[in-house]
Amino acid sequence: MQYQRAALVIASPALTQREVEFTKSAWLAGLRPDQRTAQQMREVSVEFPLLSRDVVVVRCGGSVVTAAIATALVEPTPQRPKHGLLHFSVRRLHTERDSPAADGSTQKNLVAFLERLVRTGGVIDTAGLCVLPGQKVWSLTVDVTIMNDEGNCNDAAVWAVIALLMHHRRPELTVRGSSVIVHPPHEREPVPLSVQHTPLPFTFAITMAPTEREKALNHQRALSATGSSSGPQPSSGVGNSIDTASAFAIDGTSPQPLGVVVDPTTAESLAAASSIVVAINAEGQVCTVVKAEGCSIHLKDLNACIEAAGTLAPRVLDLIKVAMEAHDERRKTAMKGQFAWAQKRSGVGKVEQACVKKIKTET
Amino acid sequence: MSLPPATGAVELASFQQHVHQFLVQNKRLDGRPLDALREPHILRDSKGGDGLLASTLYTDNTGMCLNCTVSGVFGPPPSDQPDEGRLTVDVAAPFFQSHSTDQVAAALREVARFVRSTIISCMDLTELNIINGEACWVLQVELVILNADGGLRAAALHAVVAAIHNMLLPRSRLPNGDEVESRRLRFHTIPVAVTIGVYKLGASGVRFLMDTNAAEESVVDGLLTVVLSDENGIITFVQSGSYSISSLLLTGAVNEFALRSAALRAAILKPSVAAAKINGSKNSVTDPHPLKEG
């Protein structure tokens, strides 16, 4: 990890404007400011830092997002007595770069997106969280904290929520009539949540409007034509035909402007003409597409984004699964280490282990 | 998010089963084919007075009724964009049952956010600027949903577009005495929107319902809202729901709407013939049964 200063320099509007102008110039030259390719993401890591299964940290380059989940048995709402409850809250650590007048609109948009993706999209079937209709249902509360924002925080937040829902375990229940027995983890193994499918969103930045991109391509074609005509060998013409249909085309002979870039940083988000969020599940199907503001785009750009997200989603899903397996191994090692003292001594009386999580037996 | 359908005395589950039976036979409740749009009728009133710049009443033939009023006041520009004007959108639905207030409020907030972001994408807000960094026009759009029958985002957007297009900002005077010349607002592209429902037909396939009503929105498995520009470019695209769609189906649905977008745009921008009658009498502005042309 690169060295981070303790106090970040306050980015002035002039510096932000210079970054935006540099980003646009780099896009016209077919490059990105941090030398990534158009479809390349920053380094993504998923980590479960605690031994319990309810905290996750997702890093995407310099953006860090933490998510925590809590489960509780509560009484359902009267309107929907057979459905569990799902709550999402998003917080953002305040930095010096944030203006005091900044409202929580980005957090509200992210909460609305999570509600639409997880609840309406059917990631968690809320009917499966019902224990006793009208009396007891499970309530899931997911708390997302954006620790550092260097662009693409919304995607990292949703990846954190999906990883958390896949990895979390709730206590097992025994229902006898109207009495519910909640078994602590040392009595019975906790039960995973029923996750129907795993949509993973990816944000794409549209660098410029399609009409402006075509103008830039025509300009470059004219430049290359005049260059070849004024060259020492006028008979050898430039035979490369520029394919305008491909938004991700990177030609080695003459650099073309980038059309669509994935995983935009903060400067790229400010410089972009528009942005698209595509959520793809493990089978490569589109769960959610959101293109809200900015210029109008072509349908082939949208299809290019869907195809690019289809190739990126399995990688992030593999990262999540590898992190889950590594965390399970770490839990097993820690559990063995807890009882290593018992193998060295004999004749010691049995001591009742206090449960880490205080879960009441409700009758 | 959709507003719940008004089923009257019928239970919602029975009503949904009734709609399911129609959709299984590739029929709809109101007799439309699967790819037909409801024709909007928009009445305009642009008399002005008391800061009111434009007023439109949006109806179609199945009961959607929206009232949109646009007011203009002076105000300071936003601090991060000092050369732009401001646009605020408020949506109210006073006639809905109170047992689902939070659901209705969330849906209305989403509609307001959708309309505002789409209008900002199609209109240059620097036209509302008066003095850079000090004074600008603040357009206040107020939408009152008198009756909702599905496709709320599309209907709200059409009502606002009909009100703001070619709207005259009058000649005014700033509080410090400066004269502000009159100005006519223009869109650089006219957006048209549709709500497309995705209905999963067992294991054999999927059906797309163009321009869903409230009954169909309560039974479909997914919803698309597509906003197209003059050249059929995608301005806004929102797809959500429990059914995952492949990109080929998405492309087909958008192209199907692109074939009908020109006729819909003409219907939105058509000047209403009954405007002369409305100018004569004030009471007929809120007439829920507008006169049909022809």
Automatic annotation (TrEMBL), chain A:
GO molecular function: hydrolase activity; mRNA 3'-UTR AU-rich region binding
EC supergroup of this enzyme: hydrolase
Comp. bias regions, Low complexity: 224-241
Domain Exoribonuclease phosphorolytic: 41-171, 260-309
Keyword field: Cytoplasm, Hydrolase, Nucleus, RNA-binding
SUPFAM superfamilies, per database record: Ribonuclease PH domain 2-like, Ribosomal protein S5 domain 2-like
GO-annotated biological processes: exonucleolytic trimming to generate mature 3'-end of 5.8S rRNA from tricistronic rRNA transcript (SSU-rRNA, 5.8S rRNA, LSU-rRNA); maturation of 5.8S rRNA; nuclear mRNA surveillance; nuclear polyadenylation-dependent rRNA catabolic process; rRNA catabolic process; TRAMP-dependent tRNA surveillance pathway; U1 snRNA 3'-end processing; U4 snRNA 3'-end processing
EC number: 3.1.13.-
InterPro entries: ExoRNase_PH_dom1, ExoRNase_PH_dom2, ExoRNase_PH_dom2_sf, Exosome_comp_Rrp42_subfam, PNPase/RNase_PH_dom_sf, Ribosomal_Su5_D2-typ_SF, Rrp45
Cellular localisation: Cytoplasm; Nucleus
Record's GO cellular component terms: cytoplasmic exosome (RNase complex); exosome (RNase complex); nuclear exosome (RNase complex); nucleoplasm; nucleus
Region feature Disordered, mapped onto this chain: 215-242
Major localization class: cytoplasm
Family assignment from sequence similarity: Belongs to the RNase PH family.
Protein name: Ribosomal RNA processing protein 45
Species: Trypanosoma brucei brucei (strain 927/4 GUTat10.1)
Automatic annotation (TrEMBL), chain B:
Molecular functions per Gene Ontology: 3'-5'-RNA exonuclease activity; mRNA 3'-UTR AU-rich region binding
GO cellular component, one term: cytoplasmic exosome (RNase complex)
Keywords of the record: Cytoplasm, Exosome, Nucleus, RNA-binding, rRNA processing
Any Gene Ontology biological process: TRAMP-dependent tRNA surveillance pathway
Domain Exoribonuclease phosphorolytic: 68-169, 190-247
Main location: cytoplasm
Compartments (UniProt record): Cytoplasm; Nucleus, Nucleolus
Family per record: Belongs to the RNase PH family.
Protein name per its UniProtKB record: Ribosomal RNA-processing protein 43
Organism: Trypanosoma brucei brucei (strain 927/4 GUTat10.1)
Source taxonomy: Eukaryota, Discoba, Euglenozoa, Kinetoplastea, Metakinetoplastina
